[in-house]
Amino acid sequence: MADPVVTADEMRAAEEAAIASGTSVEELMHRAGEGAAEWIWRLCGGRAVTVLCGPGNNGGDGYVIARHLRQRGASVSVVAPLAPDTDAARAARADWGDSVSESWDEAGGEVFVDALFGTGLSRGLSPEHQQLLHRLANRHVNSVAIDLPSGVSSDDGALFDDIPSYDLTVALGALKPAHVLLPAAPHLSMVRCVDIGLGDIHYRAETLDRPQIAAPKSDAHKYSRGLALVVGGAMPGASLLAARAAQGAGAGFVQLASNEAGAVPHDIVQIDGELEHALSDERIDAALIGPGLGRDQDASHRLQRSLAAGIPLVIDGDALRIITPAATRFEREWDDSILTPHEGELASLEENGGLEKRGSKLDRARRVADTYGTIVIAKGPDTIIASPDGHCVCAPRSPSWLSVAGSGDVLAGIAVARRATSEDGDAFDAACEAVWLHAEAGRIAGASFAAGELANCVRAALERCL
Ligand SMILES: NC(=O)C1=CN([C@@H]2O[C@H](COP(=O)(O)OP(=O)(O)OC[C@H]3O[C@@H](n4cnc5c(N)ncnc54)[C@H](O)[C@@H]3O)[C@@H](O)[C@H]2O)[C@@H](O)CC1
Ligand SMILES: [K+]
């Protein structure tokens, strides 16, 4: 099941709603601390623990954790450079009832628990706090972050400071954007979420789950299964790669509109001549334009013709450098196309759309989706799928071997196949399926694959979603 990804404001609203319906902050803190202590106990197995507590409710959670671990028999030391400044944290410290040091004297401890700051961190740490945090992390065998590593900005994953690496991060109530976004996410090797009974949380982002993909119906034929057209350009290799991936991702028929001479496999139908001719086939369910397109005048013409054809499009690569919101929003009455930018292309889309580059990757992908009126796959190690209505899905971490030339062409090919095969015409679902299949193909391909091998693994990835 998908998990919500919740901003600090959305968390606060959920907390207020829970309080309004009769749950106290102390009760929420108790559930958070008890749940986190359970995870830490599994990691520490009775070893000595040092808990670093901050002044806010994150620190309050730390005192609750310290008390629960002590009750279980662990030797626990608490370090708190700042006194509690919330009622709930003061109560939690009183319940701990044991000694608290203001600084760390390097006394024993194998497991370090960072409960210095959570979602309330608003600026960088002071040099003393920064030094204390790193000393503690370096001098213990394992480190655990409570809710978030101290030094991380909850809503966008930015690092206020250099942070240590953590073996375990216990997210409280829900995942936050920093758990899934760069640059924070790679510092958190394992993230576990504790349910603190917040009830219904209003959220606009969630994690990506394995999709369920249906096999073709028993009466299917090549056209009813989805006809995907890949529009080629100056560099035919990229579009061939995309076409190969589209075949593996379930399309019944893949055509390549290209005038470039070159060996095209027999099971891909090449349609040469005027692009209008290829696009005029009413049986086409979706088309891909961008991989290997080039950015010259011919590329612009091919893009304009594709947009004018009124077919759902996947727009990738070079096409993302030359497209404008006027083309997607106003030249077409409707648009359910998918844009697949990497970071540089996302910045181009922002620039061409007159948008500022600000906020989290979630905010940026949403803004581009809204401005262009399309679904956006903002790809990278922290891929986001965004809809113009603001809904976002965050992909789980994928194999880093996917960072290979041609990997994006494969993703675009998968996306056009999923868009062509989708029965209800839902571009957002097609985009989510494509992101999952791409990562799954990477897992199957193993280490150091070339993009062609990745494309060949898409079929096996699809099989795992049937
Ligand atoms: N939202 C919820 O429903 C719940 C939240 N809980 C915990 O509460 C945390 C949020 O608590 P708070 O809002 O109190 O925030 P934090 O505890 O994260 O930090 C806020 C405190 O730190 C200070 N501060 C912020 N940046 C600082 C800096 N750079 N240097 C020094 N001081 C700094 C603030 O002035 C304030 O005193 C969550 O991360 C979670 O751990 C849990 O107790 C359970 C329930
Ligand atoms: K923390």
From TrEMBL:
Stored SUPFAM superfamilies: Ribokinase-like (SSF53613), YjeF N-terminal domain-like (SSF64153)
InterPro entries, A to Z: CARKD, Nnr, Ribokinase-like, YjeF_N_dom, YjeF_N_dom_sf
Binding site for (6S)-NADPHX: 57-61, 118-124, 147, 238, 292, 342, 409
Chain residues that bind AMP: 379-383, 408
Residues bound to K(+): 58, 114, 150
CC cofactor note: Binds 1 potassium ion per subunit.
UniProt-listed Enzyme Commission number(s): 4.2.1.136, 5.1.99.6
One BP term from GO: metabolite repair
Residues in YjeF N-terminal domain copies: 11-204
Span of domain YjeF C-terminal: 205-465
CDD domains, A to Z: YXKO-related (cd01171)
Catalytic activity: (6S)-NADPHX + ADP = AMP + phosphate + NADPH + H(+); (6R)-NADPHX = (6S)-NADPHX; (6S)-NADHX + ADP = AMP + phosphate + NADH + H(+); (6R)-NADHX = (6S)-NADHX
Keywords for the protein's UniProt record, in alphabetical order: ATP-binding, Isomerase, Lyase, Metal-binding, Multifunctional enzyme, NAD, NADP, Nucleotide-binding, Potassium
One term of GO molecular function: ADP-dependent NAD(P)H-hydrate dehydratase activity
Names of the cofactor(s): K(+); Mg(2+)
Gene3D superfamilies: 3.40.1190.20, YjeF N-terminal domain
Alphabetized NCBIfam families for the sequence: yjeF_cterm, yjeF_nterm
Role of this protein: Catalyzes the dehydration of the S-form of NAD(P)HX at the expense of ADP, which is converted to AMP. Together with NAD(P)HX epimerase, which catalyzes the epimerization of the S- and R-forms, the enzyme allows the repair of both epimers of NAD(P)HX, a damaged form of NAD(P)H that is a result of enzymatic or heat-dependent hydration. Catalyzes the epimerization of the S- and R-forms of NAD(P)HX, a damaged form of NAD(P)H that is a result of enzymatic or heat-dependent hydration. This is a prerequisite for the S-specific NAD(P)H-hydrate dehydratase to allow the repair of both epimers of NAD(P)HX.
Assembly description: Homotetramer.
Family affiliation: In the C-terminal section; belongs to the NnrD/CARKD family.
Protein name, entry field: Bifunctional NAD(P)H-hydrate repair enzyme
Lineage summary: Bacteria, Pseudomonadati, Pseudomonadota, Alphaproteobacteria, Sphingomonadales
Gene (UniProt): nnrE
